[in-house]
Specification:
Layout: H1 3-12, H2 21-29, H3 44-55, E1 59-61, H4 66-78, E2 83-85, H5 92-97, E3 104-106
Helix pairs in contact: 1-3, 2-3
Length: about 110
């Protein structure tokens, strides 16, 4: 079983990818440019979360909504995936803390 599927099961509880996810993740892992346009609820987030776990480097996610960032970060942290979101409402202490080791940062 490949590492992507192992991580999918380990962190997200799924045994297979949804349509399009595997190809998107493969492109990212092979460092090929990729534009993923999927409908709401199709699992776009997993398409960058799995590569972030494999690469074990900082992944930056640009999100237009603070509520969406908070929701994603809360879910990832519950799965022991170190994540944080940075926004204009943060205090200086919270902002400084955001530079610690996190796998995924939402901006």
């Amino acid at each position: 079983m490949n590492k992507s599927l192992i991580l999918l099961k380990q962190y997200f509880g799924y045994t297979s990818f949804r349509k399009g996810q595997s190809e998107i993740i493969s492109n990212i892992l092979n460092r090929r440019d990729c534009l993923a346009i999927l409908p709401t609820g199709a699992g776009k987030s997993i398409c960058y979360q799995i590569p972030a776990l494999i690469f074990n480097n900082l992944t930056i996610v640009i999100s237009p909504l603070i509520s969406l960032m908070k929701d994603q970060v809360d879910k990832l942290n519950k799965k022991n995936i170190p994540s944080i979101y940075i926004n204009s409402n943060m205090s200086n202490i919270e902002y400084s803390r955001s530079f610690k080791k996190y796998t995924i940062r939402y901006l």
